[in-house]
Specification:
By secondary structure, the protein is α/β, with parallel strands linked by helices. It has helices at residues 7-21, 63-72, 96-104, 147-150, 157-166, 222-231, 264-274, 303-314, 402-419, 425-435, 460-468, 491-494, 518-530, and strands at 48-57, 75-78, 85-90, 109-116, 176-181, 207-208, 248-253, 261-262, 291-294, 296-299, 318-322, 333-334, 342-347, 363-368, 383-389, 393-399, 481-484, 487-490, 536-538. Mean pLDDT is 78; it is low at 1-44 and 496-534.
Length: 539
């Protein structure tokens, strides 16, 4: 099915919405030299048998202790007596990620890994380009509109998609991503509609922590736009594409007071609930999230939010948050500056830190945040995704901000989990940073001893390739180490290039490539954001 989208309508509506939702980046600077990042090997993603785990036991462990460890992890049957290792099959509905994690915690278990499939040596498959028509109404028309996936400073999505398809993992199948935001257009309910570019079976049960009810509908549009970047239906001949179309979205409404802001108590409850923890007065979450996306933030280190994040991390949920849009050091903000969070800054289409993006030691890596300008071909340089307009239907809109950068990283984590189900939150952060393209690194004007843009620009293909190799090192690699070529090596030894310290923007608005009047617009946007900083706001 093909659809024609009125781009002029998109542009007018998106410019108004994005101005209120994101601090605009209105400048650009010269492009740094591209980097190769992590070298990718042919046929790098390791496919494995679904629902099958190979478990090794420590020397001297009794058969009774071995069987007890298996039973607690949800094992259906063992192929052989458990000595010294055994191939086991999970019961239906048991998550491989959680089973492997549970097994590794048992005193009797030395290691637990998926049952990988060996293939004859082969070349890397050609990049995969979905058939979504975009505005052109022809297959692959999305490429003209979504530079963030395919551009020079996009996230290398087509190669990641091709490798995942070749390995039998087309997308983060079985992985759940909670979108803590203004809600999501997940269903037709009352005046709310589900975008046709979301699959009908794409969502698991969510919750509304603002209105305290079971329908986390999007009263704003921001949450739907974020969710679309993660999991918009892809290769379906409709609209545009999402990065991880096979994962499932858990809509959790935590923002809504005063046009997309929220309070720490609601947000903390939402974090705990999304991770599968009990929240008083709320039905328990039967489908806990593997990844939690938080495209919002505000000033001040929140002890309330940190405690909730600690609980979520302990349950194995990866927490990803926006750095913020005020072009300052994010170290004192929440959730960006809190421990255990993967904090994401934004780059423009030249791969440089966007003029609005926060920076600092707490930033883990960068992803496309876009700017609301047009390129030489007349295409927007914002981030395009689906959008619900309550009471009027759906559309597609360009936004810009670290809110838009964050879901790229959340989707990348979901893809990584699909090939490395036992990946921990700490490993996710380590692997993302080790595989990032250092061309987008930048200096930190408030702390010259620390990077300003983390490890550089998200490279989804490199991250998934690296994640797929981790279980090949048994019993696993320690802190600061990653598995590469079947041996544990320093994470820093495989990151390409050295820190580039030239493309930081000071004061919030770049002075390069600007036109008269841009600074006034940037200042006006900054003032709008400052008005709501007393609460956590979407960024």
């Amino acid at each position: 099915m093909s659809m024609r989208f009125p781009l002029s309508s998109w542009s007018r509506r998106a410019l108004l919405a994005a101005f209120a939702l994101s601090l605009l980046a209105l400048g650009s600077a010269s492009s740094p030299a591209p980097s190769q990042g992590v070298a990718k090997r042919a046929a790098a993603i390791a496919p494995y048998e679904r629902g099958v785990i190979v478990v090794g036991f420590k020397a001297g462990v009794s058969g009774a202790a071995s069987h007890a460890a298996l039973e607690r992890a949800g094992i259906a049957r063992a192929s052989t007596p458990p000595d010294p290792f055994v191939t086991v099959t999970l019961r239906g509905g048991v998550s491989m990620t959680r089973a492997i994690a549970a097994l590794r915690e048992r005193p009797a278990v030395a290691w637990a890994v998926p049952d990988y499939i060996a293939h004859a040596a082969q070349v890397e498959p050609a990049p995969f380009y979905p058939n979504d028509p975009g505005a052109a109404g022809v297959p692959r028309g999305w490429e003209q509109l979504q530079w963030n996936f395919v551009g020079t400073f996009g996230v290398d999505a087509p190669q990641a998609w091709a490798n995942l398809r070749a390995a039998g993992h087309p997308g983060g199948e079985g992985v759940i991503v909670a979108v803590l935001d203004t809600g999501v257009a997940y269903a037709d309910h009352g005046r709310f509609v589900r975008s046709p570019d979301f699959r009908s079976n794409e969502f698991v049960q969510g919750y509304d922590f603002v209105s305290h009810g079971p329908y986390p509908e999007d009263h704003n549009g921001h949450g739907t736009q974020v969710a679309g970047t993660i999991a918009e239906a892809t290769n379906n001949g409709v609209g545009v594409t999402g990065l991880d179309w096979a994962c499932r979205i858990q809509p959790v409404r935590a923002l809504g007071i005063q046009h997309g802001t929220g309070v720490d108590s609601d947000i903390a409850d939402a974090i705990r609930w999304a991770a599968g923890l009990h929240v008083e007065g709320v039905p328990d979450n039967a489908t806990p999230a593997d990844v939690i996306n938080m495209s919002f933030g505000g000033k001040g280190a929140s002890s309330t939010m940190q405690a909730a994040i600690n609980d979520a991390l302990a349950r194995g949920a990866v927490v990803v948050a926006a750095a913020g849009n005020l072009a300052y050091d994010a170290g004192g903000d929440s959730p960006a500056g809190l421990d255990g969070v993967i904090t994401v800054g934004g780059v423009d289409p030249t791969g440089q830190i966007a003029s609005y993006s926060n920076f600092g030691r707490v930033v883990s890596l960068m992803a496309p945040g876009g700017v609301l300008l047009t390129d030489a071909m007349g295409n927007s340089e914002g981030i395009l995704s689906t959008l619900e307009l309550p009471g009027t239907g759906y559309t597609y809109a360009y936004y810009a901000g670290t809110s838009q950068a964050t879901p790229f990283v959340s989707a990348a984590v979901a893809l990584m989990k699909s090939v490395y189900p036992s990946m921990t939150p700490a490993e996710a952060k380590k692997l993302l940073m080790a595989s990032a393209d250092p061309a987008s690194r930048c200096a930190n004007p408030t702390d010259p001893s620390a990077p300003g843009c983390g490890a550089g620009l998200l490279d989804v293909d490199a991250a998934v390739v690296l994640a797929s190799t981790q279980s090949q090192c048994v019993p696993g690699c320690g802190d600061g180490l990653v598995c590469s070529a079947n041996q544990c090596v320093s994470a820093s030894s495989i990151a390409g290039g050295v820190t580039g310290e030239t493309n930081v923007t000071y004061g919030g608005c770049s002075a390069t490539g600007r036109t008269p009047g841009d600074d006034a617009l940037c200042l006006a946007a900054a003032l709008m954001v400052a008005l709501v900083l007393s609460r956590r706001s979407r960024v």
